[in-house]
Amino acid sequence: MTSRKFYVFQVCQTFEASEVNAVLLPCFASHTFREEIQEEIGIPVLDMMAALRMHVDHVAERGTTLGIMASDYVRHSGLFERYFGTDFKLVYPNDNEQSRLMGAMYGVNGIKDGFLDGGHLICGDLQRRGVRALDINEIYAAFATLEKGQSTRPPFKLGIVGGVGPAATVDFMGKVVAHTPAGRDQEHLKMVVEQNPQIPDRTANLLYDETDPTMAMYATCKRLESAGANAIAIPCNTAHAFVERIQTHLSVPIVNMLTETVEAIVQRYGAGKTVGLLATSGTIKSQVYHEAARRAGLQIITPGVDYQVLVMESIYGDHGIKAGFTEGICKDQLLIAAEHLCELGADVLILGCTELPLVLEHSESYMIKNHEVALVDPTTILALKCIELARENTVKPISR
To answer: Which ranges form a coiled coil (predicted)?
Structure first.
Protein backbone atom coordinates (compact mmCIF):
# COMPACT_ATOMS: atom_id res chain seq x y z
CA MET A 1 0.00 0.00 0.00
CA THR A 2 2.98 2.32 0.47
CA SER A 3 3.66 2.29 -3.28
CA ARG A 4 0.02 3.17 -3.92
CA LYS A 5 0.25 6.07 -1.45
CA PHE A 6 3.31 7.47 -3.17
CA TYR A 7 1.73 7.06 -6.60
CA VAL A 8 -1.47 8.86 -5.56
CA PHE A 9 0.55 11.63 -3.93
CA GLN A 10 2.68 12.14 -7.05
CA VAL A 11 -0.39 12.29 -9.30
CA CYS A 12 -2.04 14.79 -6.95
CA GLN A 13 1.12 16.89 -7.02
CA THR A 14 0.93 16.89 -10.81
CA PHE A 15 -2.68 18.03 -10.67
CA GLU A 16 -1.76 20.78 -8.21
CA ALA A 17 1.03 22.00 -10.48
CA SER A 18 -1.48 22.05 -13.35
CA GLU A 19 -3.68 24.38 -11.24
CA VAL A 20 -6.73 22.10 -11.15
CA ASN A 21 -9.31 23.07 -8.53
CA ALA A 22 -9.87 19.68 -6.90
CA VAL A 23 -9.00 16.00 -7.18
CA LEU A 24 -11.39 13.04 -7.42
CA LEU A 25 -10.06 9.80 -5.96
CA PRO A 26 -12.58 7.10 -7.01
CA CYS A 27 -11.02 4.25 -5.04
CA PHE A 28 -12.06 2.97 -1.62
CA ALA A 29 -8.61 1.58 -0.84
CA SER A 30 -7.02 4.95 -1.57
CA HIS A 31 -9.52 6.61 0.75
CA THR A 32 -7.97 4.75 3.66
CA PHE A 33 -5.10 7.25 3.35
CA ARG A 34 -6.87 10.20 1.68
CA GLU A 35 -6.36 12.40 4.75
CA GLU A 36 -2.61 11.74 4.66
CA ILE A 37 -2.52 12.95 1.05
CA GLN A 38 -4.69 15.97 1.83
CA GLU A 39 -2.26 17.13 4.51
CA GLU A 40 0.47 17.44 1.89
CA ILE A 41 -1.52 18.86 -1.05
CA GLY A 42 -2.71 22.44 -1.48
CA ILE A 43 -5.90 21.58 -3.39
CA PRO A 44 -8.92 19.61 -2.14
CA VAL A 45 -8.87 15.84 -2.51
CA LEU A 46 -12.62 15.26 -2.38
CA ASP A 47 -13.83 12.77 0.21
CA MET A 48 -15.76 9.95 -1.50
CA MET A 49 -16.79 8.47 1.85
CA ALA A 50 -18.25 11.82 2.93
CA ALA A 51 -20.19 11.85 -0.35
CA LEU A 52 -21.52 8.36 0.35
CA ARG A 53 -22.46 9.26 3.92
CA MET A 54 -24.31 12.36 2.72
CA HIS A 55 -26.27 10.28 0.21
CA VAL A 56 -27.09 7.51 2.71
CA ASP A 57 -28.33 10.09 5.21
CA HIS A 58 -30.70 11.30 2.48
CA VAL A 59 -32.09 7.90 1.45
CA ALA A 60 -31.97 5.82 4.66
CA GLU A 61 -32.92 6.27 8.28
CA ARG A 62 -30.44 5.95 11.11
CA GLY A 63 -30.26 2.37 12.29
CA THR A 64 -30.72 0.95 8.80
CA THR A 65 -28.66 -2.15 8.02
CA LEU A 66 -26.10 -1.46 5.30
CA GLY A 67 -24.56 -4.31 3.34
CA ILE A 68 -20.95 -3.68 2.34
CA MET A 69 -19.26 -5.35 -0.61
CA ALA A 70 -15.59 -4.35 -0.51
CA SER A 71 -12.13 -5.82 -0.83
CA ASP A 72 -10.51 -7.60 2.09
CA TYR A 73 -8.18 -4.65 2.59
CA VAL A 74 -10.96 -2.05 2.74
CA ARG A 75 -13.12 -4.30 4.90
CA HIS A 76 -10.42 -4.76 7.52
CA SER A 77 -9.25 -1.12 7.41
CA GLY A 78 -12.32 0.08 9.32
CA LEU A 79 -13.05 2.70 6.66
CA PHE A 80 -16.81 2.13 6.63
CA GLU A 81 -16.93 1.90 10.42
CA ARG A 82 -15.37 5.37 10.66
CA TYR A 83 -18.11 6.93 8.58
CA PHE A 84 -21.16 4.76 9.35
CA GLY A 85 -20.46 2.58 12.38
CA THR A 86 -22.07 4.74 15.05
CA ASP A 87 -25.38 5.31 13.22
CA PHE A 88 -25.92 2.26 11.03
CA LYS A 89 -25.62 -1.51 11.31
CA LEU A 90 -22.96 -2.77 8.90
CA VAL A 91 -22.94 -6.32 7.54
CA TYR A 92 -20.37 -8.00 5.31
CA PRO A 93 -20.43 -11.27 3.37
CA ASN A 94 -19.44 -14.40 5.30
CA ASP A 95 -15.97 -15.80 4.72
CA ASN A 96 -17.04 -18.07 1.86
CA GLU A 97 -18.96 -15.34 0.06
CA GLN A 98 -16.16 -12.82 0.68
CA SER A 99 -13.73 -15.21 -1.01
CA ARG A 100 -16.06 -15.47 -4.01
CA LEU A 101 -16.39 -11.68 -4.07
CA MET A 102 -12.61 -11.26 -4.14
CA GLY A 103 -12.41 -13.76 -6.99
CA ALA A 104 -15.08 -11.88 -8.90
CA MET A 105 -13.10 -8.68 -8.51
CA TYR A 106 -9.48 -9.80 -8.77
CA GLY A 107 -9.53 -13.37 -10.11
CA VAL A 108 -9.15 -14.71 -13.63
CA ASN A 109 -11.96 -13.26 -15.76
CA GLY A 110 -12.71 -10.87 -12.89
CA ILE A 111 -13.82 -7.28 -13.02
CA LYS A 112 -10.24 -5.98 -12.76
CA ASP A 113 -9.45 -7.87 -15.96
CA GLY A 114 -12.27 -6.07 -17.73
CA PHE A 115 -14.91 -8.80 -17.62
CA LEU A 116 -18.12 -7.02 -16.64
CA ASP A 117 -20.73 -9.57 -17.74
CA GLY A 118 -23.01 -10.61 -14.94
CA GLY A 119 -22.69 -7.48 -12.84
CA HIS A 120 -26.13 -6.26 -13.91
CA LEU A 121 -27.64 -9.63 -12.99
CA ILE A 122 -26.38 -9.31 -9.42
CA CYS A 123 -27.75 -5.79 -9.11
CA GLY A 124 -31.06 -6.90 -10.61
CA ASP A 125 -31.38 -9.69 -8.06
CA LEU A 126 -30.72 -7.25 -5.23
CA GLN A 127 -33.31 -4.84 -6.57
CA ARG A 128 -35.95 -7.58 -6.86
CA ARG A 129 -35.37 -8.31 -3.19
CA GLY A 130 -35.93 -4.63 -2.38
CA VAL A 131 -32.26 -3.92 -1.67
CA ARG A 132 -31.00 -0.68 -3.17
CA ALA A 133 -27.57 -0.95 -4.80
CA LEU A 134 -25.80 2.40 -4.65
CA ASP A 135 -23.71 3.65 -7.57
CA ILE A 136 -20.77 5.24 -5.76
CA ASN A 137 -19.32 6.75 -8.93
CA GLU A 138 -22.55 8.62 -9.63
CA ILE A 139 -22.82 9.72 -6.00
CA TYR A 140 -19.20 10.91 -5.94
CA ALA A 141 -19.56 12.84 -9.20
CA ALA A 142 -22.69 14.60 -7.93
CA PHE A 143 -20.93 15.43 -4.68
CA ALA A 144 -18.05 17.02 -6.58
CA THR A 145 -20.42 19.48 -8.25
CA LEU A 146 -21.76 20.75 -4.95
CA GLU A 147 -20.07 23.71 -3.28
CA LYS A 148 -20.52 22.04 0.10
CA GLY A 149 -18.80 18.99 -1.30
CA GLN A 150 -15.49 20.82 -1.53
CA SER A 151 -12.87 19.75 0.98
CA THR A 152 -11.52 22.11 3.61
CA ARG A 153 -8.35 24.00 2.83
CA PRO A 154 -5.04 22.44 3.84
CA PRO A 155 -3.26 23.45 7.05
CA PHE A 156 -1.60 26.86 7.16
CA LYS A 157 2.06 26.73 6.15
CA LEU A 158 4.53 29.40 7.22
CA GLY A 159 7.45 30.17 4.93
CA ILE A 160 10.63 31.44 6.57
CA VAL A 161 13.47 33.32 4.89
CA GLY A 162 16.30 31.85 6.93
CA GLY A 163 20.00 32.48 7.21
CA VAL A 164 19.65 36.20 7.95
CA GLY A 165 21.27 35.30 10.30
CA PRO A 166 21.35 31.55 10.84
CA ALA A 167 21.14 31.57 14.65
CA ALA A 168 18.33 34.13 14.57
CA THR A 169 16.36 31.82 12.28
CA VAL A 170 16.64 28.95 14.74
CA ASP A 171 15.70 31.32 17.58
CA PHE A 172 12.60 32.46 15.69
CA MET A 173 11.47 28.91 14.94
CA GLY A 174 11.98 27.99 18.58
CA LYS A 175 9.73 30.88 19.60
CA VAL A 176 7.03 29.79 17.17
CA VAL A 177 7.12 26.33 18.73
CA ALA A 178 7.28 27.64 22.31
CA HIS A 179 4.33 30.02 21.92
CA THR A 180 2.04 27.70 19.95
CA PRO A 181 -0.77 26.41 22.21
CA ALA A 182 -0.35 22.78 21.21
CA GLY A 183 -0.97 19.60 23.15
CA ARG A 184 0.55 17.30 20.53
CA ASP A 185 2.93 17.46 17.59
CA GLN A 186 0.15 17.70 15.02
CA GLU A 187 -1.18 20.96 16.49
CA HIS A 188 2.01 22.89 15.70
CA LEU A 189 2.51 25.04 12.61
CA LYS A 190 3.76 23.69 9.34
CA MET A 191 6.92 25.57 8.41
CA VAL A 192 9.05 25.54 5.29
CA VAL A 193 12.47 27.17 5.64
CA GLU A 194 14.94 28.34 3.03
CA GLN A 195 18.09 28.59 5.15
CA ASN A 196 20.08 30.83 2.83
CA PRO A 197 23.05 32.46 4.59
CA GLN A 198 24.41 33.43 1.17
CA ILE A 199 21.91 36.30 0.96
CA PRO A 200 24.19 39.39 0.78
CA ASP A 201 24.58 41.39 3.97
CA ARG A 202 21.73 43.87 4.29
CA THR A 203 23.61 46.37 6.43
CA ALA A 204 26.63 46.38 4.09
CA ASN A 205 24.34 47.29 1.21
CA LEU A 206 22.55 50.07 3.06
CA LEU A 207 25.72 51.63 4.50
CA TYR A 208 28.37 50.97 1.87
CA ASP A 209 26.38 50.20 -1.29
CA GLU A 210 27.73 46.65 -1.41
CA THR A 211 25.86 43.79 -3.13
CA ASP A 212 22.11 44.35 -3.25
CA PRO A 213 20.30 41.52 -1.39
CA THR A 214 16.94 42.21 -3.07
CA MET A 215 17.31 39.57 -5.80
CA ALA A 216 18.42 36.85 -3.40
CA MET A 217 15.61 37.69 -0.97
CA TYR A 218 13.05 37.73 -3.77
CA ALA A 219 14.24 34.40 -5.17
CA THR A 220 14.07 32.87 -1.70
CA CYS A 221 10.53 34.17 -1.21
CA LYS A 222 9.47 32.77 -4.58
CA ARG A 223 10.80 29.34 -3.63
CA LEU A 224 8.80 29.51 -0.40
CA GLU A 225 5.77 30.59 -2.40
CA SER A 226 6.22 27.60 -4.72
CA ALA A 227 6.52 25.33 -1.68
CA GLY A 228 2.99 26.30 -0.66
CA ALA A 229 3.66 28.94 1.99
CA ASN A 230 0.56 30.92 2.98
CA ALA A 231 2.62 33.71 4.53
CA ILE A 232 6.33 34.53 4.77
CA ALA A 233 8.32 35.57 7.83
CA ILE A 234 11.74 37.20 7.60
CA PRO A 235 13.41 37.12 11.03
CA CYS A 236 15.78 39.97 10.20
CA ASN A 237 15.00 43.59 11.04
CA THR A 238 17.39 45.12 8.50
CA ALA A 239 15.97 42.95 5.70
CA HIS A 240 12.66 44.77 6.12
CA ALA A 241 14.21 47.76 4.37
CA PHE A 242 13.81 45.67 1.19
CA VAL A 243 10.37 44.18 1.85
CA GLU A 244 8.31 46.88 0.14
CA ARG A 245 10.02 46.41 -3.22
CA ILE A 246 9.62 42.61 -3.00
CA GLN A 247 6.04 42.32 -1.73
CA THR A 248 4.34 43.65 -4.86
CA HIS A 249 5.83 40.77 -6.86
CA LEU A 250 4.62 38.01 -4.53
CA SER A 251 1.21 36.37 -4.27
CA VAL A 252 1.57 35.67 -0.54
CA PRO A 253 2.07 38.28 2.21
CA ILE A 254 5.29 38.96 4.04
CA VAL A 255 4.42 39.45 7.70
CA ASN A 256 6.00 42.81 8.50
CA MET A 257 7.89 42.32 11.75
CA LEU A 258 8.54 46.03 12.24
CA THR A 259 4.92 47.10 11.80
CA GLU A 260 3.75 44.34 14.13
CA THR A 261 6.34 45.36 16.73
CA VAL A 262 5.29 49.00 16.70
CA GLU A 263 1.61 48.07 16.92
CA ALA A 264 2.32 45.72 19.83
CA ILE A 265 4.14 48.51 21.69
CA VAL A 266 1.22 50.91 21.21
CA GLN A 267 -1.28 48.31 22.39
CA ARG A 268 0.78 47.34 25.44
CA TYR A 269 2.33 50.64 26.53
CA GLY A 270 0.38 53.37 24.72
CA ALA A 271 1.38 55.87 22.05
CA GLY A 272 2.99 58.36 24.44
CA LYS A 273 6.07 56.31 25.28
CA THR A 274 9.58 57.17 24.16
CA VAL A 275 11.02 54.13 22.44
CA GLY A 276 14.73 53.44 22.12
CA LEU A 277 15.94 51.46 19.13
CA LEU A 278 18.89 49.09 19.38
CA ALA A 279 19.56 48.01 15.80
CA THR A 280 22.16 47.82 13.07
CA SER A 281 23.29 51.06 11.51
CA GLY A 282 21.67 49.83 8.30
CA THR A 283 18.27 49.54 9.94
CA ILE A 284 18.65 52.99 11.48
CA LYS A 285 19.75 54.54 8.19
CA SER A 286 16.84 52.96 6.31
CA GLN A 287 14.39 54.66 8.72
CA VAL A 288 11.99 51.71 8.41
CA TYR A 289 11.33 51.65 12.15
CA HIS A 290 11.01 55.43 12.26
CA GLU A 291 8.38 55.39 9.51
CA ALA A 292 6.37 52.65 11.23
CA ALA A 293 6.63 54.53 14.53
CA ARG A 294 5.51 57.83 13.00
CA ARG A 295 2.40 56.18 11.58
CA ALA A 296 1.59 54.85 15.04
CA GLY A 297 2.38 58.08 16.90
CA LEU A 298 5.51 56.82 18.64
CA GLN A 299 8.78 58.69 19.11
CA ILE A 300 11.89 56.67 18.25
CA ILE A 301 15.30 57.58 19.64
CA THR A 302 18.59 55.97 18.61
CA PRO A 303 22.04 55.80 20.24
CA GLY A 304 24.61 58.53 19.72
CA VAL A 305 27.44 57.82 17.30
CA ASP A 306 29.87 56.35 19.85
CA TYR A 307 27.18 54.17 21.40
CA GLN A 308 26.00 52.96 18.00
CA VAL A 309 29.56 51.77 17.37
CA LEU A 310 29.17 49.59 20.48
CA VAL A 311 25.90 48.14 19.17
CA MET A 312 27.56 47.24 15.87
CA GLU A 313 30.54 45.73 17.68
CA SER A 314 28.22 43.65 19.85
CA ILE A 315 26.70 42.21 16.67
CA TYR A 316 29.56 42.06 14.15
CA GLY A 317 32.70 42.16 16.31
CA ASP A 318 35.21 39.36 16.74
CA HIS A 319 33.47 38.50 20.00
CA GLY A 320 30.05 39.54 18.72
CA ILE A 321 26.78 37.67 18.46
CA LYS A 322 27.22 36.74 14.79
CA ALA A 323 30.52 35.13 15.78
CA GLY A 324 28.62 32.88 18.19
CA PHE A 325 29.00 34.81 21.46
CA THR A 326 26.09 35.69 23.76
CA GLU A 327 27.99 36.56 26.94
CA GLY A 328 31.01 38.67 27.79
CA ILE A 329 32.10 41.68 25.72
CA CYS A 330 29.11 41.67 23.35
CA LYS A 331 26.59 41.75 26.20
CA ASP A 332 28.53 44.46 28.06
CA GLN A 333 28.64 46.62 24.91
CA LEU A 334 24.93 46.18 24.35
CA LEU A 335 24.04 47.08 27.93
CA ILE A 336 26.14 50.26 27.77
CA ALA A 337 24.22 51.37 24.68
CA ALA A 338 20.92 50.39 26.31
CA GLU A 339 21.74 52.40 29.44
CA HIS A 340 22.55 55.38 27.21
CA LEU A 341 19.06 55.19 25.64
CA CYS A 342 17.47 54.97 29.09
CA GLU A 343 19.33 58.14 30.09
CA LEU A 344 17.89 59.82 26.99
CA GLY A 345 14.40 59.01 28.29
CA ALA A 346 13.51 55.68 26.71
CA ASP A 347 10.75 53.76 28.51
CA VAL A 348 10.79 50.88 26.04
CA LEU A 349 13.72 49.40 24.13
CA ILE A 350 13.28 47.58 20.84
CA LEU A 351 15.80 44.78 20.36
CA GLY A 352 15.84 45.74 16.69
CA CYS A 353 18.29 43.17 15.36
CA THR A 354 17.27 39.52 15.53
CA GLU A 355 20.66 38.65 17.03
CA LEU A 356 20.05 40.85 20.09
CA PRO A 357 17.38 38.63 21.72
CA LEU A 358 20.02 35.92 21.85
CA VAL A 359 21.64 38.12 24.51
CA LEU A 360 18.72 40.03 26.07
CA GLU A 361 15.29 38.43 26.34
CA HIS A 362 11.86 39.97 25.84
CA SER A 363 10.86 41.44 29.22
CA GLU A 364 8.11 43.63 30.66
CA SER A 365 10.51 44.91 33.29
CA TYR A 366 14.31 44.85 33.03
CA MET A 367 16.72 46.74 35.26
CA ILE A 368 19.69 48.47 33.61
CA LYS A 369 21.61 50.13 36.43
CA ASN A 370 18.96 52.39 38.01
CA HIS A 371 16.61 52.32 35.03
CA GLU A 372 13.58 50.05 34.72
CA VAL A 373 12.73 49.49 31.09
CA ALA A 374 10.67 47.15 28.93
CA LEU A 375 12.58 45.09 26.38
CA VAL A 376 10.62 44.27 23.24
CA ASP A 377 11.80 41.38 21.08
CA PRO A 378 10.48 41.73 17.50
CA THR A 379 11.23 38.05 16.90
CA THR A 380 8.75 37.10 19.61
CA ILE A 381 6.19 39.57 18.24
CA LEU A 382 6.63 38.08 14.76
CA ALA A 383 6.24 34.54 16.10
CA LEU A 384 3.03 35.45 17.91
CA LYS A 385 1.60 37.12 14.81
CA CYS A 386 2.40 34.10 12.65
CA ILE A 387 0.70 31.81 15.17
CA GLU A 388 -2.35 34.10 15.11
CA LEU A 389 -2.46 33.99 11.31
CA ALA A 390 -2.22 30.21 11.35
CA ARG A 391 -5.12 29.89 13.78
CA GLU A 392 -7.24 32.29 11.72
CA ASN A 393 -6.54 30.45 8.47
CA THR A 394 -6.71 26.82 9.52
CA VAL A 395 -9.98 24.91 9.47
CA LYS A 396 -9.89 21.93 11.79
CA PRO A 397 -10.87 18.71 10.02
CA ILE A 398 -14.01 16.91 11.13
CA SER A 399 -13.07 13.98 13.34
CA ARG A 400 -14.47 10.62 12.29
So the answer is: none
